[in-house]
Amino acid sequence: MEIWTRCVDFILISGMSILGLIIFFLIKSRTQQSKKLLIAFFASAIFFLLYYYGYVHKIRFIGAIALFFGNGQGYLLGPFLLFYLKSLILPKEKIFPSLFYHLIPFFLDFVFLSVPLSMRLGLRYFSNYISHYDKISDYLNLIENAYFFVYILLTYKLLRKVKASLKNHYSHIDEGNLTWFEFLLIGIAIIITADSLFSIYELYYPIVPWNIGTIIAFMFVILYVYLGYKGIFQSRILLPEFLNEVTLENHVISNDKQIKNQEHGRQLDGLSQDEIEELKIKLDNLLNKKKLFLNDSLSLTDLADAIGIGNKKLSELLNQHLNISFYNLINDYRIEEVKHRMNSEENDKLTLLGIAFESGFQSKASFNRVFKSKTGMSPSMYKYSILKERNPPSTID
Q: Is the C or the N end of the chain the one with fewer CB within 10 Å?
């Protein structure tokens, strides 16, 4: 048992220390509103771990402090996840006033549960009040988890729309890559599911002598340490105004066709089929002949200006009439350019990365990822297949 206690101590103390460092670096970094939300997010996680540290060592005072500041995590972190994502896109005056209403369940939980629970643990007050709580604590935990899970779903749905909007406007999305945040959502969803299963278990079976919630604490430590630091380097995502307003204000709408109509306003409805075909020809000319895709910072707005139309019209032309996103369109051309240059013996002295940069890619990571998704093989494997075709192995009669 002593070995188990030392192991728990090591994990909990290490987790709290690392989270403290993450908070320190967030404070030292630029004070964006999104960073402030992350600071609150990780600070509440420290109190969550602190509670289990106090439980393991039977230190009532530490447990009382942790309960006071860290109880009701689901009611707090759920809205924080959603508004963190919003804060990466919209200015604070458009999102923070509404955050208060989403935190009302947390404030109620704080007044009626966090305060009495911490005072009972630290000062032995509210004993009769809390005795009723003990009988329904697992049910309350399931309600809190359900609330948290709803916000994870809302955040995930918004995340998918943000990523789709990025692909409709930029040819490179590495700076706005929110894959780490997607993993964070999935990880938290798994942990909440596990915690709910533990609560259901305790409703029907004898309570485990050691606090089963310690497993949840361990899972949070692993998740936060592995993915949490990514938030330090996440910058704001710059979406065009016509995209971010619809993406955020209508993220709960489920009808994709309705969303597309709202996003683009049916800008091309007034044009004839011949006029639309003329726009397609202009687009093809700019990409095939003038090769605008070689510009590694090319955006939807840049291409729209070159054609002589607004970015709303170009976005609708791509999505509705060509059934492709701007991101995929430009990267299709870039991959074809890379393949063409690989096949040319004139470029044999160039490295694969050199060819990638000359074809419009900004980084090795994005080049490798896009190339493999488009061709099904890595750039080096593709190059090897070309060299093998040029120099087939000789056969001996």
A: C
